Input
Amino acid sequence: MTSYDWLSIVSLVGALVLVTSGLRARRIEMRKGLLMAAAWAAIFFVVSAIVAGAQG
Output
């Protein structure tokens, strides 16, 4: 692993901590949080598929 790989891992963990703390501060239930995460993942997948299809 290079130093940039470690930087990516640290950045990802930091982002996950921020998102988790934000959800906990709003007192969002785990089930609702997972549902929202699944919805965002589906949106990202659909948009990625559309862009990939448009590029050929």
About this structure: Residues 30-55 form the longest helix (26 residues).
